[in-house]
Amino acid sequence: MNVSVIIPALDEEDTVADVVRACLADDPLEVLVIDADSTDATASRAAAAGADVRNWRDILAEEPRPGKGESLWRGVAAAKGDIVVFVDADLESAAPGMVAALTAPFVDPGVDMVKARYQRSLNGHPTGGGRVTELTAKPLIKQFFPELAHIDQPLGGEYALRRDTALELPFVEGYGVEAGLLVDVGKQGTVAQVDLGTRVHRNRPLHELAPMAEVVARTLLARAGVIAPVAQRPPLKGKI
């Protein structure tokens, strides 16, 4: 089982190298950093840490659209592994073993996606999920997709997919990508969870969280058929 790690990155020079090194410790087939035109040292630090750094413009001919979903979509196109593992570049608690943990459940051929289960830490205190997760994603998932209500971190950036599955899925633009992928896989496949302990991400201010919450809400409402579909990239199957 070959594993490709995909790290979407935009101006994350302070953390990306540690994330890359933690992923490489589990000896995957490749660690791809998809650089979305960073203006800082993200690309050079990721390369120095051992990643295969790809500018997102060099992967597919289409002009990139803003947002995380675009980087993940292009990362899947570039990946060579049977399993793709997504890891956020701003993860401050990256540690060896997380890639191995996220890929272990795929020994069961019925598993299509593996999500990380973890506690977030703020000032040394566990907080469960982030504010967008607890106040937006989980209530909407419970209402419209109760079969997925047990997923502890529906918006978490550490998760894995069979690449064949990823190639058949649309990727929502921006920060709605995790919600869209979870619902789409959950409708037709099996989602497993693995415990990764306590994770530390950069704590974002409210003015950054409000647009994220709006995108997540629109994605989930669109998947529920309540509003019109959101902007997304089509499945890559047949395209690459």
Detailed description of the structure:
This is Glucosyl-3-phosphoglycerate synthase. One of its GO terms (molecular function) is glycosyltransferase activity. Pfam families: Glycos_transf_2. The chain is globular. The protein is of the alpha/beta class and 240 residues long. The two termini are 21 Å apart. The strands form 2 sheets. Strands 1, 2, 3, 4, 5, 6, 7 and 9 form an 8-stranded mixed sheet that branches. A two-stranded antiparallel sheet has the order 8-10. The chain has 8 helices and 10 strands. The longest helix is centred in the C-terminal third of the chain and has 18 residues, at 206-223. 34% of the residues lie in helices and 23% in strands. The model has no long low-confidence stretch (mean pLDDT 93). β5 and β6 (125-128) form a beta hairpin. α5 packs parallel to α8 and α7 (177-188) packs parallel to α8 (206-223).
